[in-house]
Amino acid sequence: MERIYLDHAATTPLHPVVIKEMMAVMESQYGNPSSIHSFGREARQILDETRQELADSIGAKPNNIILTSGGTEADNFAVIGYAETNRKKGKHIITTQVEHHAVLHSCQELEKRGFDVTYLPVDGEGLVKPEAIQDALREDTILVSVMFGNNEVGTIQPIAEIGQFLSSHQAAFHTDAVQAYGILRLNVDELKVDLLSVSAHKINGPKGLGFLYIRDGIALSPRSFGGDQERKRRAGTENVPAIAGFREAARIASEGLEEKQGIYQNFKIILIESLKKNEISFEVNGSLAKGLPHVLNLSFPGTNVEAMLVNLDLAGIAVSSGSACTAGSIDPSHVLVAMFGKDSERLKNSIRFSFGLNNTAEQIEKAAAETARIIKRLTRRQV
Question: What does the record give as EC number (predicted)?
Answer without folding.
Answer: 2.8.1.7
